[in-house]
Structures are given as structure tokens and as C-alpha cells.
Design brief:
The chain is globular, with a radius of gyration of 24 Å. The chain folds into 3 domains: 9-84; 93-253; 268-466, Rossmann fold, CATH 3.40.50.150. The protein is an alpha/beta fold. The relative contact order is 0.09. The protein has helices at 36-46, 50-56, 72-77, 98-117, 157-174, 179-184, 191-197, 200-203, 206-222, 238-253, 268-271, 276-293, 307-315, 327-340, 368-371, 383-387, 394-404, 418-424, 436-446; strands spanning 9-11, 23-26, 29-34, 64-66, 80-84, 120-122, 130-133, 136-139, 145-147, 297-301, 319-324, 344-348, 376-379, 407-412, 448-454, 461-466. Strand 11 (319-324), helix 14 (327-340) and strand 12 form a beta-alpha-beta unit.
């Protein structure tokens, strides 16, 4: 048993819905209570080392029972208190790209099949219970596991469809990324809404009929809008349950985005404006910065296909969380991370409108800046996309960037640069104050400059800053 350290106890605002137990943070450590109501199921998982096998096989985050005296009245009311290792970064499904969401969906189904073989099932199918360690998904809610009861239906089917399947189908059928819709509705994409967007011929296929059309009719019946269809007293044999999970997995495994055309930055690795020597210089600068600062977590804003994130992970960064708005570039970054087993997590971000605090009481899902406790930030060829393309004053852009981490690299791109000139080709140049002098002055108000290097013939410059 481990004694609790001193420090304030903080409840995770995203765990309040679960009567089985809540998640708390104390002195940087993560704890979960197990209520009397959930103790019987938790005891079943502990028996014969079942939970430990799930941990060792990489399905679920590790846990260790600890003394509950350090949680005061909260601990005294719990049957058990367990400690989880702190994950370096929590992401949300509305920040995932298509392949990340697909990987999470397949992982959830595979875990269901594995658990069912051991007499265990999941009480829900929340996408928020899956997190990523680099490109590898892992389950984080031990209290969602419980004994399988012979003949039961899949309680989490509707939730799985709304939070995994339907967002994937939105992109696979219509070519529309799920991110903005999902962020606007944290419970996912409703089946009835999705069906309105699907062509009739696709609705009539067996997969859609069994997982979308029929369940939607049952849901409508439950709210009195159609003739009721009852499943009361019926049972789903275990082989049929397993077959449904495998059939759903096969369907999802075959889904691909419908919009496979060219995007602005999807071919960045082949079409960027750097000559070979300039590319080498830029990589060397990043490698030197990372080797000397050794960040535990580094943010790569405008990560594109992840080429500089890879340099960072290879130079000493424990984890790189990349962000970009270009879906094709992010999908290539995820493929890079998965193929090379990089500790790189590429996520969708509109930097001018980042993920806010939202959900119940504006706190259930945390804003990006509350989750990204980074040691370093990398913003390569990034600031002009906010200043020129989005009309955000340079001073506020620099203040925001330097506020994300105590040290980092920011690349300044001159107005004469070909990329900026293309951005200005179809709009009025209202950026009279956009200059390196203004950038340097803004940086100086927020941090000290450690090193500066010009890396292109067009004058692109890398600024290594430190505000510690």
C-alpha cells in the first residue's frame, strides 16, 4: 500500500457521471475511487489476476491499489482507491483524424472480443475511454469492465455507433471530417442525423440496416414517434454477440475517407519551398534544440506530415504532440508514427479556434491549453498562417506561442517569401507592420532569444527562445 502525499485534492470534472467511482488528482498523481456499488465487479476482475493480464497484454492502463486514508472523507467512503500512471497528454475524439478514430474504434472492438473470451464485457462504449500513447490506443476506465451475463444485449451499441461508427461514416460516405460536428456535440453524431445524409442505396446495405436503420427505428419507437418494436425477454447468444462485434470490426476496417484528393499541405514533404541544404540546416537546428533541452513533452504546431516531429523524437523528446488543420497531412503523420513506432500523436487543430473548456458547467472537457503541459514548443513556418491568413496581430500570436511552453523554436517567414506571396495573391495586403523587426520586438517582450539562424535563401529564420 502507498501512502498519499500532502497536497490539494482535485476531482476530474469528466468523471462525475459514473456512480461506480470518480477520478481525482493529488500532487500530480491520478487516483480512482471504487464505490461499494462497483466493488463486486471490481473484485471479479481482481480474482485470478484477470485485470493484471489485461494490463500486461497492453489493453488497459496500469493500476495499483493504495491506502485510502489520504483522500479524507472521500477515501473513507470508497471500498477501494487505485492509482493510475499519469498519461502525458489527454486527447479527445473531436481532435482525432480519421485514422486515429478508426484505430480507436478497432481497438475498442478487439478489446471487447478479448474481454468476452474471458467472461468480461464493457458497460459502455465511450470514445473518451480510449487514449493514445503515441500511435497506440489504450483503455483508461477500469470500472467500465464487468462480468458478462449470458444472453445479454450489447448495452453500449448505440454509444459506439454515435461516438465511433457514425463519425467515421460521415467522412467515408460524404467526405466531411467529423471534427467540428463532434466538438459541437460531445456525445458524437446521432444516427438519425447521419441517416438523413446517407444515400438510400447505402442505407439498404446489410451493415447500415443492422447498425443504423433498425436501431434508429427502435430509438424512435422508444420516444413514441413510431410503432414500438420490443426486444423484452429476448436474448442474444454469446456466439451471436461475438459475431456482431467481428462483423462490425470488418466493416470499420474497410472504411476509408471519401475525399482523397489533394489538400493544401498533404504533399508538403514533396512540395515545400526548401532546397536540400536548407532542409538539412532546419533539421539540424531542431535536433540541437531538442538534444539540449530534452523535453518530456513537446508541441509541434503546424506539424504537417510529421517530418520534424520525427527529428524531435529521435533527438531526445519523450513525446511529441503534433497539431495541424490539414487532414491529409495529419493522416500521413499518423502513418509515419505507426510505421516507425514513434512517440508522436498528430491531432487536428484550428489554431485560431482551439478546443475550449466545454461540456457540463464548461469543465467536463478541458481546453487545449489546460491539457498541454508542454516543456517545449515548435512552430515552424506557422506564425504567418495566423497573422496573414487569419488577421491575428503578430504580438498576440507570439504571446500565445511563448505561453504554451517555457522554451521553443519559432520560424519567422518574411512577407517576400513565396508562400506568403501566394497567400496575399487574392487579397489586399493590409499587413504594413508585418516584419522581422516587429516579430523580434514581440518575442523580446515575452522571452529571451537564445539562438537565431537563417535557414533559407528567402530569409526564413529560426528563433530559439527561452522564458525560464
Amino acid at each position: 500500500m502507498i501512502a498519499f502525499p500532502n497536497g490539494d485534492l482535485l476531482v476530474d470534472p469528466g468523471s462525475f457521471r459514473d456512480p461506480s467511482g470518480h477520478v481525482y488528482e493529488k500532487a500530480g498523481r491520478i487516483f480512482r475511487t471504487v464505490s461499494e456499488k462497483a466493488a463486486e465487479e471490481y473484485d471479479f476482475l481482481r480474482r485470478d489476476g484477470l485485470l493484471r493480464r489485461f494490463v500486461e497484454d497492453g489493453w488497459i492502463v496500469d493500476s495499483e491499489e493504495v491506502a485510502n486514508t489520504g483522500l479524507g472523507e472521500i477515501g473513507a467512503a470508497a471500498r477501494y482507491v487505485i492509482e493510475h500512471p499519469r498519461l502525458p497528454f489527454i486527447s479527445y475524439p473531436y481532435e482525432w483524424t480519421f485514422p486515429l478514430l478508426k484505430a480507436a474504434a478497432l481497438f475498442h472492438l478487439d478489446f471487447q472480443v478479448e474481454a468476452l473470451a474471458r467472461g468480461v464485457t464493457l458497460s459502455d462504449a465511450s470514445a473518451y475511454n480510449v487514449q493514445f500513447l503515441g500511435s497506440r490506443p489504450i483503455f483508461i476506465d477500469v470500472l467500465s469492465l464487468r462480468r458478462y451475463r449470458d444472453g445479454e444485449f450489447w448495452r453500449g451499441h448505440r454509444q459506439f455507433c454515435e461516438q465511433f461508427l457514425n463519425p467515421l461514416l460521415l467522412r467515408a460516405v460524404s467526405g466531411v471530417p467529423h471534427n467540428h460536428w463532434y466538438r459541437g456535440n460531445l456525445e458524437g453524431i446521432g444516427t438519425a442525423e447521419l441517416l438523413r445524409l446517407m444515400p438510400v442505396r447505402k442505407k439498404l446495405r446489410w451493415n447500415a440496416l443492422s447498425h443504423l436503420v433498425l436501431p434508429s427505428r427502435l430509438q424512435a419507437a422508444a420516444t413514441g414517434r413510431a410503432k414500438p418494436l420490443s426486444v423484452k425477454g429476448r436474448k442474444l447468444p454469446r456466439p451471436a454477440f461475438e459475431a456482431m462485434l467481428r462483423q462490425l470490426r470488418k466493416w470499420i476496417a474497410g472504411l476509408e475517407p471519401a475525399d482523397t484528393g489533394r489538400t493544401v499541405w498533404g504533399k508538403y514533404g514533396a512540395t515545400h519551398t526548401y532546397a536540400d541544404g536548407e532542409e538539412v540546416a532546419k533539421r539540424a537546428f531542431v535536433a540541437e534544440f531538442v538534444a539540449k533541452t530534452k523535453p518530456a513533452m513537446m508541441l509541434d504546431l503546424g506539424c504537417n506530415t510529421g517530418q520534424y516531429s520525427e527529428v524531435a523524437t529521435g533527438s531526445g523528446a519523450d513525446l511529441v504532440v503534433g497539431f495541424d488543420f490539414d487532414q491529409a497531412a495529419l493522416e500521413k503523420a499518423f502513418a509515419r508514427s505507426a510505421a516507425k513506432s514513434l512517440n508522436l500523436l498528430p491531432l487536428f487543430l484550428d489554431a485560431a479556434n482551439p478546443s475550449p473548456d466545454q461540456g457540463w458547467n464548461g469543465a467536463e472537457r478541458k481546453a487545449l491549453h489546460r491539457r498541454a503541459r508542454a516543456d517545449a514548443v515548435m512552430a515552424l513556418a506557422f506564425e504567418h498562417h495566423l497573422t496573414i491568413a487569419r488577421n491575428i496581430p503578430m504580438g498576440t500570436v507570439v504571446e500565445w506561442l511563448t505561453g504554451l511552453a517555457p522554451r521553443g523554436i519559432i520560424e519567422f517567414v518574411h512577407k517576400s517569401d513565396p508562400t506568403v506571396q501566394r497567400m496575399l495573391a487574392l487579397r489586399e495586403d493590409i499587413f504594413a507592420h508585418y516584419s522581422e523587426e516587429a516579430f523580434v520586438a514581440a518575442l523580446g517582450r515575452n522571452a529571451r532569444t537564445v539562438k537565431v539562424e537563417t535557414v533559407t535563401a528567402a530569409g526564413r529564420r529560426l528563433f530559439w527562445y527561452d522564458r525560464t
